[in-house]
């Protein structure tokens, strides 16, 4: 399949996007149903064209067509097939094509599943989505074309960055982009509402599922990326507060706030203006993340200045969309009427607190990420803002929020009973006390942080259980009544409980591994022994091994459990990829229950091999928690009330019009 | 996105030997001093790396700095003296946690400012609404009249 076909399809997609960005908008303006309908057809066709374009590039990678510059730069004929395919988006051009394909995918989804939306709202949403697509298609075609050929074609490719030759690349970027770019739908809905100057509870009901979908994908994407870095980078870290990570974490924080404020808007018609603003800000943060990562500005402001073509282009897109949408917001926001009075102690009040703290968290991470760039641009000085800053500011902000989480779902709308909620939580509180005392006396008496932190994690889990128990009337009704009430509860109630308990699991994982981890650094010769967390590693020596496109030296260890039972071998390796002459470390990881033994090797010195072994208690809960959060999001999505395309008003009117 | 992080980290990996960090020959005999050295190292940047502390990095420079921190500690420096020594030598870039000073006011002030302004905004919005509601509520006379109507219905 010639990539020229893909190139051509992409240009066609651009043409269609221009139609998509204009015709439905005009249609909504002049109330022409025919013009509005154009948007749907064009959105679906545009997505299919980008899909064709993407497929031809993937095909180029599969057949190792090194006459394509992008394939030559990032692939190698000896690479395993999976990594040939995933290598398509393991580089700038390919990943931007994936980005824009997912953008078009969401527009097509609205076209297919949004049949019950009021026609003018649907038309405007699709048009705004089209505008974003136009901008990014222009970006790809003018500054980041993946279809450029080289003549004559080289015989062998330069290979993909070895760190990316991992199953992680197959899962992490697509999930992350589905989340990142998925927020474009919330953005388009917000802008469409501002264009129409009208917004109601039904609007929130349509926006929520899309936000929830994007949020669930982003949660999974971030967690997957974290696990990938954990096992691939070889020093056992799982979160580095790196600007690139922050770029994906910022939309997650804002998106989480949006998810919660949309509930208030849907149920109580309050916080309308704020919800629209959050929807705009969330996608703006996604765009800003794209700018930060894609422009090279992160390495240095000067690196950006020397090759500004891409950076300036994305910066213009950024200013256009953020500035434009905020200007529209400034003009129109006052026309959105707000209703729904509430007392500070109420479900709404709790959700406002959630939004206040999450917004502060977002602002904190944002300033921490941008500050070094700001200082460098203004004064030329270089300073660093790293993990210690974020830990010092972010943790004190987020702990009170997590403490408050179990109260939220137990408070009534409009006016809640804080004392009543506290009484309902007394069992949860008692259980948490037991956990804390138990941790202190039986696990580690030196670490009060561990006891308090684990208490917080369990507080979230027991709090979530309390909410379900209360709603099912446990203690007030007989078992059969409780059971039938449980069955009758809306799925979104379980979704909330799972998501909140998921954070609890993640907190337990984070706290366990940061406070109770055991670390050993030793020099080992064959038959030397090191012990971590009760497990004994006996070094049996180094053996060479040859993979398809790498060679490695494997250090092998015989593993013995705390009970003296032999548990086989664990191998850690140092790998060399000759195509790029690049060394990597492959950690040896063995999972026991929720905990992991993590072994990584360093230099071979005359006194022996440097071996780094960690016992990481309950570390897997960090990512299991995220999966549980995703599952909660999925449950909520399956709720009848929120299901995409659930029957809504005005359907008959639309059909009559058609 | 992660791909870029990994690519940047590679830069570091290529400079040093890939593998575990803090080799055993660096470790101090005094566990208290070693613990202080590790804590300090986590706050100091490996300056040739992308956002890595010298504790996490296996680059040559990170190793030199780790040894330097330990030398200063053995010589009897306090934590603060070590930090000052390194800042004087390498500039503020070496600190992963920027100093509390007037220049960094925006950085440290933003979280507090956003929290306060946001809180104040939410509070005034509530007060404004609560004021409106007071008007919407029935006066005692109206309340009594309503009660009368309700009772007559029963």
UniProtKB/TrEMBL annotation, chain A:
Superkingdom assignment: Bacteria
Protein location: Cell inner membrane
Similarity annotation: Belongs to the CcmF/CycK/Ccl1/NrfE/CcsA family.
TM region(s), chain numbering: 6-30, 42-62, 96-114, 121-142, 175-195, 207-229, 273-292, 312-331, 352-374, 394-413, 425-443, 449-470, 491-518, 620-638
Stated name of the protein: C-type cytochrome biogenesis protein CcmF
Span of domain Cytochrome c-type biogenesis protein CcmF C-terminal: 315-640
GO MF: heme binding; heme transmembrane transporter activity
Keyword Cell membrane included in the entry's annotation: yes
Source organism of the structure: Nitratireductor aestuarii
Domain Cytochrome c assembly protein: start-end pairs: 89-295
Membrane topology, from the record: Multi-pass membrane protein
One example of a Gene Ontology biological process annotation: cytochrome complex assembly
Major subcellular site: membrane
Keywords: Cell inner membrane, Cell membrane, Cytochrome c-type biogenesis, Membrane, Transmembrane, Transmembrane helix
TrEMBL record, chain B:
A GO BP entry: cytochrome complex assembly
Membrane found in the keyword field: yes
Sorted UniProt keywords: Cytochrome c-type biogenesis, Heme, Iron, Membrane, Metal-binding, Signal, Transmembrane, Transmembrane helix
Compartments in which it is found: Membrane
A matching Pfam family: CcmH
Listed InterPro entries: C-type_cytochrome_biogenesis (IPR051263), CcmH/CycL/Ccl2/NrfF_N (IPR005616), CcmH/CycL/NrfF/Ccl2_sf (IPR038297)
Principal location listed in the UniProt entry: membrane
Residues annotated as signal peptide: 1-20
PANTHER family xrefs: CYTOCHROME C-TYPE BIOGENESIS PROTEIN CCMH (PTHR47870:SF1)
Designated name of the protein: Cytochrome c-type biogenesis protein
């Amino acid at each position: 399949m010639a990539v020229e076909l893909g190139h051509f399809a992409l240009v066609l997609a651009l043409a269609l996007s221009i139609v998509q960005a204009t015709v439905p908008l005009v249609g909504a303006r002049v109330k022409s149903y025919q013009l509005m309908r154009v948007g749907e057809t064009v959105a679906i066709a545009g997505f299919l064209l980008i899909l064709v374009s993407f497929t031809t590039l993937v095909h180029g990678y599969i057949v190792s067509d090194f006459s394509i510059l992008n394939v030559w730069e990032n692939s190698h004929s000896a690479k395993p097939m999976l990594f040939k395919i995933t290598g398509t988006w393991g580089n700038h051009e390919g990943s931007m094509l994936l980005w824009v394909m997912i953008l078009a995918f969401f527009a097509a989804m609205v076209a297919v599943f949004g049949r019950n939306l009021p026609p003018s709202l649907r038309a405007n949403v699709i048009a705004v989505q089209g505008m974003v697509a136009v901008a990014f298609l222009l970006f790809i075609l003018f500054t980041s074309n993946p279809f450029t050929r080289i003549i004559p074609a080289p015989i062998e490719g330069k290979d993909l960055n070895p760190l990316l030759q991992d199953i992680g690349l197959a899962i992490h970027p697509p999930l992350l982009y589905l989340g990142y770019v998925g927020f474009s739908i919330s953005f388009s809905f917000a802008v469409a509402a501002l264009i129409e100057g009208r917004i109601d509870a039904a609007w929130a009901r349509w926006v929520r599922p899309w936000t929830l979908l994007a949020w669930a994908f982003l949660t999974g994407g971030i967690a997957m990326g974290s696990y990938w870095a954990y096992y691939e980078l070889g020093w056992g870290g799982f979160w580095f507060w790196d600007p690139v990570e922050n770029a994906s974490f910022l939309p997650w924080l804002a998106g989480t706030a949006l998810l919660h404020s949309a509930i208030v808007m849907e149920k109580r018609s309050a916080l309308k203006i704020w919800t629209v603003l959050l929807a705009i800000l969330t996608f703006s943060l996604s765009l800003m993340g794209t700018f930060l990562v894609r422009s090279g500005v992160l390495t240095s402001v000067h690196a950006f200045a020397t090759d500004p073509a891409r950076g300036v282009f994305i910066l213009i897109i950024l200013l256009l969309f953020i500035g434009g949408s905020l200007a529209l917001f400034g003009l129109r926001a006052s026309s959105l009427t707000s209703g729904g009075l509430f007392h500070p102690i109420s479900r709404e009040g709790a959700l406002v607190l959630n939004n206040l703290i999450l917004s502060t968290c977002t602002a904190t991470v944002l300033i921490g990420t941008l500050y070094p760039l700001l200082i460098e641009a203004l004064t030329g000085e270089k300073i660093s803002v790293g993990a210690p800053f974020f830990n010092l500011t972010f943790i004190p902000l987020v702990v009170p929020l997590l403490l408050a989480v179990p109260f939220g779902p137990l408070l009534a709308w409009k006016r809640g009973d804080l004392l009543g909620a506290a009484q309902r939580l007394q069992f949860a509180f008692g259980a948490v006390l037991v956990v804390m005392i138990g941790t202190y006396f039986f696990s580690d008496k030196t670490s009060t942080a561990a006891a308090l932190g684990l208490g917080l994690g369990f507080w979230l889990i027991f709090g979530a259980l309390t909410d379900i128990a209360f709603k099912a009337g446990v203690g007030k009704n007989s078992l059969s009544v409780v059971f039938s009430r449980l069955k009758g509860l809306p799925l979104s109630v379980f979704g909330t409980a799972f998501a909140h308990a998921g954070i609890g699991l993640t907190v337990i994982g984070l706290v366990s591994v940061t406070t109770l981890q055991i670390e050993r650094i030793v020099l080992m010769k064959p038959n030397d022994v090191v012990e971590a967390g009760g497990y004994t590693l006996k070094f049996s020596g180094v053996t060479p091994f040859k993979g398809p496109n790498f060679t490695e030296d494997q250090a092998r260890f015989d593993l013995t459990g705390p009970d003296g039972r032999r548990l086989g071998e664990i191998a850690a390796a140092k790998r060399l990829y000759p195509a790029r002459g690049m060394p990597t470390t492959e950690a040896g990881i063995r999972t026991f229950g929720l905990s992991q033994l993590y072994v990584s090797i360093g230099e071979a010195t005359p006194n022996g091999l440097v071996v780094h072994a960690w016992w990481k208690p309950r570390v897997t809960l960090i990512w299991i928690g995220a999966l549980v959060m995703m599952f909660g999001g999925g449950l909520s999505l399956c709720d009848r009330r929120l299901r995409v395309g659930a029957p809504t008003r005005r359907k008959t009117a639309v059909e009559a019009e058609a | 996105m992660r791909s870029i992080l990994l690519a940047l980290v590679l830069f570091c990996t290529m400079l040093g030997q890939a593998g575990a960090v803090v080799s055993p020959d660096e470790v101090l005999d005094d566990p208290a001093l070693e613990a202080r050295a590790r804590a300090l190292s986590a706050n100091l940047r490996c300056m040739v790396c992308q956002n890595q502390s010298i504790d996490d990095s296996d680059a040559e420079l990170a190793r030199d700095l780790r040894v330097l921190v330990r030398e200063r500690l053995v010589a009897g420096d306090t934590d603060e003296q070590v930090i000052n020594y390194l800042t004087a030598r390498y500039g503020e870039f070496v600190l992963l946690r920027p100093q509390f000073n007037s220049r960094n006011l925006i950085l440290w002030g933003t979280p507090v400012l956003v929290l306060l302004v946001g809180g104040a905004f939410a509070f005034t919005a509530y007060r404004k609404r609560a004021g409106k509601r007071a008007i919407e509520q029935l006066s005692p006379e109206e309340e009594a009249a309503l009660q009368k109507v309700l009772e007559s219905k029963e």
